């Protein structure tokens, strides 16, 4: 019996859905629409002839066949990467200076950096975290081989790794009262989330006051969860006890925000690192 052909793209989509916790977040990491991701999952199940997921309450969990397929999918993708390295004959050795937006250090990106360091021990990583604006300026001064930052308007020389819709995040207990200043929790300036939310509030004529300032996402979300303030983030920042406050409650619509990468053309290591990271892109929280 002839076995079905399975593309690595379908396997990558499957693995990303599992690692992301669902189709929505996977679509943002893969920079694909939700319908495309769902279609690729269905195509993979059709070619395998088994169901990979089952519905448990409101959640989807892997079936026993899905658990088995996940193990082999990871092996196949890893083997593909090894094959490409062997064919290209690239010597991955040297020093790589990476700048990362501080809004990304609390997410999956730090874990991916650890995986990269373990996979390529001869590459010495020097990772520094700063605001997206500082990273952009420092890159222009040739302080970094590559940077990964947030922006509302990607430029032509930046690679978009992922995008996410900005939302107002608040405590489950929060109720918006237009008669009093809106209490805000922000990162210290400069901060993309902060500047975008300030412009949106000003355009909507909503008075606000700063109630909490930090450079740590966990601390910021603790203030939000305790109903001390609201914050403009993405849905990836949501935690138990918090919710999205929609425009129907009186707060203005917010735009999308992009995670982008920029590499120095003379750095082969930087280009290799970003190509390695692209299938597992970081998302903004």
TrEMBL record:
Q: Where are the transmembrane segments?
A: none
Which spans of this chain does the record mark as coiled coil?
A: none
Q: Name one Pfam family in it.
A: LysR_substrate
Q: Which GO terms describe its molecular function?
A: DNA binding; DNA-binding transcription factor activity
Any idea where the HTH lysR-type domain is?
6-63
Q: What is the name attached to this protein's record?
A: Transcriptional regulator
Give a yes or no for keyword Disulfide bond in this entry.
no
Q: Which InterPro entries match?
A: LTTR, LysR_HTH_N, LysR_subst-bd, WH-like_DNA-bd_sf, WH_DNA-bd_sf
Classification of source organism:
Bacteria, Pseudomonadati, Pseudomonadota, Gammaproteobacteria, Oceanospirillales
Which UniProt key words apply to this protein? DNA-binding, Transcription, Transcription regulation
Q: Which family does it belong to?
A: Belongs to the LysR transcriptional regulatory family.
